[in-house]
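Duplicate of #3305? Posting structure anyway:
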């Protein structure tokens, strides 16, 4: 069974004697989305701006409460009574910290993750299924987050003067490890991943992969419909675990030309080495972030540290202070980070258009993505909040590509 695509609007088709105008074609595509859907999409996405801001402010406030009330100190003291080993103390502190903070922000998590998703008809889960996934997510955070925090605190204690540099090295190694194991150990906790079997879809994708130097024998499908209706695909893994996966919503809800266009985009991430370049960029961000943290932490500690019962920078009771500082750091630097990803996404878009030669398929996919991403934001909004190009930007890129390939569409 294949899904027919949205019919190509007249202004996005070649007409003999009429010059193809990519702007008019883009507007014609945008106009195919009904007004009520457009309004819902805008409301959903714009609400996300406020949720992001509120989340950061609540996190900072909560961290200050943990410090001022002595709760953080108390969790550390308990961990020190249980074990004499510092790494076990750090891990035990972190377990209490993450469970306590998850419980406190739980009402907010339920609203954003469950009720709001249902309000916009994006979720396919009932409450207990959702809660089950949340519990698994918490378990993963305890294990992987605990590992990371324990390792980083060990580095801070070993190198009190230069931990920002060594912490970055360890942070990048941990991130690499996380990316390496994610498709093999983490994704299967939440979803089933199976090879794509439909030959009419599979063969053109594998052919496109071979043409672009990707040695792949399988295309993977993840059953994302267990959680939501969102169409998506991704490149995950590192080295030997790296793979391209499409989700079953894309498979079941999009036309074959849209699927090929999206897979071309994902192959762009692969061929352009975005995973490795992303890690390199991430290492620069982390060293800047840790250096800022080191500076700010020292100043705050000198001013209030004794009152909060924090002994030094290697004391886990100061973790809330570190969390508050980097939450503030990411609140301010967020637009630069999203711009980095948005630029790489635009690169993958160009690659995908050239690889798949499906500008209308890609325009249709961009329209479908409007279910959860605003189609036509202002340039300022796009700079501040968009980690992918907007629908308008993507449809325009597609139509610009199409305008230069008129010969492909002429009858022969
Ligand atoms: Zn992408």
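Output from current build:
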């Amino acid at each position: 069974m294949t899904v027919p695509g949205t019919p190509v609007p007249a202004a996005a088709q070649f007409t003999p004697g009429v010059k193809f105008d990519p702007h008019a074609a883009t507007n014609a595509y945008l106009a195919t989305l009904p007004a009520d859907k457009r309004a819902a999409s805008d409301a959903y996405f714009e609400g996300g701006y406020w949720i992001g801001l509120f989340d950061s402010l609540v996190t900072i406030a909560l961290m200050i409460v943990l410090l001022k009330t002595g709760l953080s100190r108390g969790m550390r003291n308990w961990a020190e009574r249980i074990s004499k080993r510092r790494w076990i103390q750090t891990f035990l502190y972190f377990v209490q910290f993450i469970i306590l903070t998850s419980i406190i922000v739980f009402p907010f998590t339920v609203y954003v993750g469950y009720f709001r998703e249902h309000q916009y008809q994006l979720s396919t889960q009932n409450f207990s299924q959702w809660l089950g996934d949340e519990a698994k997510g918490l378990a993963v955070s305890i294990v992987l987050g605990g590992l990371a925090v324990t390792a980083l605190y060990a580095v801070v204690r070993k190198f009190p003067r230069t931990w920002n540099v060594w912490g970055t090295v360890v942070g990048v190694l941990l991130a690499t490890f996380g990316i390496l194991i994610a498709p093999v150990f983490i994704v299967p906790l939440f979803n089933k991943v199976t090879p794509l079997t439909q030959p009419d879809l599979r063969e053109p994708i594998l052919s496109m992969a071979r043409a672009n130097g990707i040695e792949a024998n399988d295309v993977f499908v993840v059953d994302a419909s267990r959680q939501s209706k969102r169409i998506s695909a991704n490149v995950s893994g590192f080295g030997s675990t790296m793979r391209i996966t499409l989700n079953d919503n894309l498979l079941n809800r999009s036309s074959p030309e849209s699927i090929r266009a999206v897979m071309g985009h994902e192959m762009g991430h692969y061929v352009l080495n975005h995973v490795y370049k992303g890690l390199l960029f991430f290492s620069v961000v982390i060293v800047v972030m840790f250096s800022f943290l080191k500076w700010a932490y020292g100043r705050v500690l000198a001013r209030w540290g004794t009152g909060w019962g924090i002994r030094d920078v290697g004391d886990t009771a100061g973790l809330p202070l570190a969390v508050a500082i980097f939450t503030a750091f990411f609140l301010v630097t967020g637009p630069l980070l999203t711009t980095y990803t948005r630029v790489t996404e635009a690169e993958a878009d160009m690659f995908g258009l050239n690889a798949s030669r499906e500008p209308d398929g890609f325009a249709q996919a961009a329209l479908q993505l409007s279910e959860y991403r605003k189609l036509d934001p202002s340039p300022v909004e796009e700079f501040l909040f968009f980690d992918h190009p907007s629908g308008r930007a993507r449809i325009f890129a597609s139509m610009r590509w199409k305008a230069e390939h008129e010969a492909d569409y002429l009858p022969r």
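Confirmed duplicate; merging threads. Residues 265, 269, 345, 348 surround zinc ion (CB under 6 Å). The longest strand covers residues 243-247.
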